[in-house]
Design brief:
alpha/beta; single chain; eight-stranded mixed sheet; 9 helices; 11 strands; three-stranded antiparallel sheet; Trna Endonuclease, Chain: A, domain 1
């Protein structure tokens, strides 16, 4: 909690130095952190990048920043180049699993050893998606995991990390690049992260089609998969499916018949 409060104090200081009523976007850089720490009398964290990463992806923005948000809008922090960032006001767009969607039962192919030693929700989810070939099932493609936790840079954004990157192939021979982000049950699918993933594919693989995926743990061994796309500056859900992993002996034959029909 002390670390969160320290990070929030630094971000609030930087925000209100650049914000004025009616502002919808403004930039800052990592070098603003030492100056803010000195002004507040705060011991500067050794890892400056963790301050920014924490408020972008782990914790909500400070309450005093949230209080400036107009109805239906929210502040995000996006990359604006090397060690540079941008506060930007965007429409609120929560991507959460639908409660009324059919749960499709599939045989669980996850090795027990993997379940026993997965270190966190994100790592476990990526492994379960990979071993059960859920990306193939969801997209109707043949896919292969190329790399996970890929750290790279994107022009105009700066450094990013992609949870896992797949390459796919369809029956006509078309090739796809599929960035995947994984979230535990309490974490929220990141709009900023999805945008970064798509921009990465556009720049690094301009001749291939991008299909951005988000995977999220739900209750009862259910995994929600979303295909996401950019509509202007906003992220939209292209398709959503929920898969429930069960032992093969527990598959409901009547349900399988319904899936066919």
């Amino acid at each position: 909690m002390a670390k969160v409060n320290r990070y929030h104090a630094l971000i609030s200081r930087i925000f209100f130095e650049g914000y004025s009523s009616g502002t919808t976007a403004f930039e800052f850089d990592r070098e603003d952190l030492p100056r803010a720490a000195a002004a507040l009398g705060i011991v500067l964290p050794k890892n400056l990048g963790d301050v920014i990463y924490s408020v972008r992806f782990r914790s909500p923005l400070p309450d005093d920043i949230l209080a400036t948000q107009p109805p239906g809008m929210e502040w995000i922090i996006e990359g604006a180049g090397r060690a540079a960032y941008r506060f930007r006001l965007v429409r609120i767009n929560r991507i959460v699993p639908r409660a009324d969607l059919l749960r499709i039962a599939i045989p669980d192919a996850t090795p027990e050893l993997i379940r026993a030693y997965a270190l966190d929700d994100e790592q476990a989810l990526l492994a379960i998606v990979r071993y059960n070939r859920l990306i193939d099932t969801f997209l109707g493609l043949t896919t292969y995991s190329l790399q996970n936790h890929l750290r790279t840079t994107v022009k105009g954004i700066g450094q990013i990390e992609i949870d896992e990157l797949y390459i796919g192939l369809d029956k006509r021979g078309c090739h796809y690049v599929i960035p995947v982000q994984a979230k535990g049950g309490k974490d929220q699918i990141g709009i900023v992260q999805t945008t970064q993933d798509i921009r990465f594919v556009e720049q690094k693989f301009p001749g291939l089609r991008c299909r951005a995926i988000a995977a999220q743990f739900m209750e009862d061994q259910v995994i929600a998969l979303f295909e996401l796309g950019l509509d202007g500056d906003e992220i939209r859900v292209v398709e959503e499916r929920h898969y429930r992993l069960v032992p093969a002996r527990e598959l409901d034959r009547d349900a399988i018949q319904k899936y066919r029909d």
